[in-house]
Amino acid sequence: MSYVDGFIVPVPRDKLDAYKALAAKAGALWKEHGALAFVECVGDDVPYGKRTSFPRAVEAGEDEVVVFSWIVYASREDRDAVNARVMADPRLETDPARMPFDGKRMIFGGFRAFLEL
User: Fold this and answer.
1) Considering only CA atoms, which of 91, 100, 68, 87 is closest in space to residue 4?
2) Where are the domains of the chain?
3) In CA terms, which of 16, 21, 55, 85 is 20 to 30 Å from 9?
4) Pfam families given for it (predicted)?
5) pLDDT tens readout for residues 53-94
């Protein structure tokens, strides 16, 4: 079974094109270093819930859209090795001031797959 890193992040609508460009570069790096898949999705039907929701989870403002992303790896061990290579790659943008989103509100985690159809 595969291993998946998942992410939810609020992105200002006026910075969405910059986010997409950054995601394309990051995705290429992750794939080059061994990720099996790299997927980025812009919220299309993500209503603001009464108790909880994707927008509530990341405290998305009126001027922001929620982006849901995931990276697929062969295993947890493979994920750890791929991420170590990516983080050591000088092409990876790491300056928070240059990011087109607020990384402090990003939700992320690693997940072991238990069903793949």
Assistant:
1) 68
2) 3-112
3) 85
4) DUF1428
5) 999 999 999 999 999 999 999 999 999 999 999 999 999 978
